[in-house]
Amino acid sequence: MTFLAIDIGNTRLKWGQYAAPFPGAPLVAHGAVFLETIDTLAESEWKKLTPPGSMLGCVVAGEGIRRRVEEQLELWDIDPRWVVSSAHAAGVSNGYDHPGRLGTDRWVALIGARHRVLAHGAPRPALVVMVGTAVTVDAMDADGNFLGGMILPGFGVMQRALEMSTAGLKVPTGEIVDFPTNTSDALMTGGSSAMVGAVERMHRKLRERCGQDPVLLMSGGAAPKLSAITDLKFENVEKLVFDGLLALQSHRLAL
């Protein structure tokens, strides 16, 4: 029976259909739509799919968006299930002061990162960077304990904040260059450097805390912009949240 993974962010809904609800299962179909268009999924992209046997999703866009997606899921005879951040799940412990308040996308990505690290060798600390509307930089030790993390504004949020607060900064999107000589490039390079600085600082702190170099995993649509300018060794993982959803679903079925 196929499995449908859904990741609802602040801007887009990403979905993937897998051949089975287990890590490493083949991805048979996937897509992404802006939240403004989710009310047509049942009549467009999802209409072509083989009916999934189960689904699991994470949502940070709010209850209204979740309910609209559930209406589209009525296309199939499945029960919608959504991740709720908890103190422990699938081998990861949540060190947030209030575990339930950790964003579900961050929680699921940490679980995906943990299983990815273990699948490639011995346990190691991991730094999980998600680059979307916001940028999150989350640290996990080699035992799967989430130690804490940072939230920064993403590229678009940074640029809009500067445009609204500073006269004369409504300029086209620039490029990341070593020495910007125009305002567009200065904005893009400044924002990117601020994010990379946060990543490199947390990487250093995690290495000091754990005594070994952490695995650096980057995910999200804008991750290539950051990965292009850091000297740290990293892996771009496009579907890290889906990896976490597969691990959670597999863990639930094994109980």
UniProtKB/TrEMBL annotation:
The keyword Nucleotide-binding applies. This is Type III pantothenate kinase. Its cofactor is K(+); NH4(+). ATP binds at D7, I8, G9, N10, T11, R12, L13, K14, T133. Catalyzes the phosphorylation of pantothenate (Pan), the first step in CoA biosynthesis. GO terms for molecular function: ATP binding; pantothenate kinase activity. It comes from Piscinibacter gummiphilus. HAMAP family: Pantothen_kinase_3 (MF_01274). GO terms for biological process: coenzyme A biosynthetic process. SUPFAM superfamilies: Actin-like ATPase domain. A monovalent cation. Ammonium or potassium. It catalyses: (R)-pantothenate + ATP = (R)-4'-phosphopantothenate + ADP + H(+). Substrate binds at Y96, G103, T104, D105, R106, T183. InterPro entries: ATPase_NBD, Type_III_PanK.
